[in-house]
Amino acid sequence: MTRKQAAFIAAYLEGGMANASEAYRIAYKPGPKSNATTISKNAARLLQHDKIAPQIAAARQKMEEATARVAARYVVTKARISEALALMAFADPRDFYDWKEGGDVSLKPSRDLTDAQAGAVQAVSSSVTKYGRSLKVELADRRGALMDLAKLHGHVIEKKDVRVIRSLEDLSEAELVALAEQAPPPPPPEPSTRH
Asked: Is the pTM of this model over 0.90?
């Protein structure tokens, strides 16, 4: 592989594999007499070259895999929501704190927590008082997580009051005023065409 071919690959990859003609211009520095059609044909030929095509394909594969990993990390599904809520709802305080009969309480080190246990931690704060350093671990709202989990799986259904209004007579004066305030202003009158 020539130095220019390697430069073409580097420029093409740095440009996000979006513009082969631009990569060709960077690597080969064609003269002012070179037209866009010639540059485009030369770039296309380089993309098919037996030493360049496999490297571009491998880079494209790596990029697609990295994109898929990132996308999978942020995909929101019912199963992922359910799993995250379950981590919060069923967190066991003994996984985080160690307390003794005399009232001594100690926190377990974060390095000893599993990913699942860490998923239940809402906040960690540290403060210094006149009595010494204080570290506080706040777990997620267990009841809230349980309720969200129950709603997600249809165990709890929120009921909503629905009022059917058949005519304006069904509304109170206050409701009529509120509706009038929400209404858009009337359009301006059209100018008269009579003279």
From this structure: no
Instruction: For the chain, give every domain's residue range.
Output: 3-71
Residue length of the chain? 195
Cα separations (Å) of 13 from 118, 120, 158? 38, 41, 52
CA-based radius of gyration for the chain: 33
Q: Convert the pLDDT of each residue in 14-57 to its tens digit.
A: 998 889 999 999 999 998 888 999 999 999 999 999 999 999 99
Task: Give the separation between CA 92 and CA 140, rounded to whole angstroms.
Answer: 11
Q: Are 67 and 75 in contact (CB under 8 A)?
A: no
Say whether domain 3-71 belongs to CATH 1.10.10. yes
Non-local CB neighbours of 114 within 8 Å, separated by 6+ positions = none
